[in-house]
Amino acid sequence: MADHLEASVTLPSDPASVSAARGYVIGTLAEWGLPSDTDVADTIRLIVSELATNAVQHTFGQSPTFTVDMLLERDEHLRIGVTDSHPRFPKRLPAAVQQDNGRGMVIIRWLAAECGGRLRVRPTREGGKTVSIELPWTVPARPVTTAGQQEP
């Protein structure tokens, strides 16, 4: 494998783009060797959904697009970041029973930590921000058949 692999897509800040972002990330990870039917892929799918939803909902129309960047370094670390041009950083809102939102960053942080990773938020040079996760890269082994061969 190469020293690193990179992929990126820019999408309009529209609710339909959340699904497109998920599909792009899961498709790219499958090309890089992570089957889409694994627990890790499901976790990443949920994290990307939350990150993309935040980029669409919480930029208040001030970011016409968002970008999903992926980097796999030395077959050891995976980083997925979502960048938008809105300067406001995500806020952790107090939990209230009636509250419909404000828990996304808590969910992302918990899911990343559960996989041995972490969440980061960084400003961009252009005045926006990138919210990213960094995870250890672990591709599950394929099940072995009774004949001793790995399943495709």
Helix vs. strand class? alpha+beta
For the report, how would you describe the main beta sheet?
5 strands, antiparallel
Distance between the termini: 19 Å
Q: Helicity range of the residues?
A: 25-40%
What is the quaternary state of this protein? single chain
Mean pLDDT: 86
Short description:
By secondary structure, the protein is α+β, with helices and mostly antiparallel strands.
Structure characteristics:
alpha+beta, 5-stranded antiparallel β-sheet, 5 strands
Provide structural commentary.
By secondary structure, this protein is an alpha+beta fold. It has three helices and five strands. The protein has helices spanning 16-31, 39-57, 104-114; strands at 4-12, 65-73, 77-84, 118-123, 129-136. It has a five-stranded antiparallel sheet, with helices on one face. A hairpin with a 5-residue loop joins strand 4 and strand 5 (129-136). Helix 1 runs antiparallel to helix 2 and helix 2 (39-57) packs antiparallel against helix 3. The longest helix is centred in the N-terminal third of the chain and has 19 residues, at 39-57. The chain is globular and about 40 Å long. The chain starts with a strand and ends in a 16-residue tail after the last strand. The mean pLDDT is 86.
List the helices and strands and how they pair.
Elements: E1 4-12, H1 16-31, H2 39-57, E2 65-73, E3 77-84, H3 104-114, E4 118-123, E5 129-136
Antiparallel strand pairs: 1-2, 2-3, 3-5, 4-5
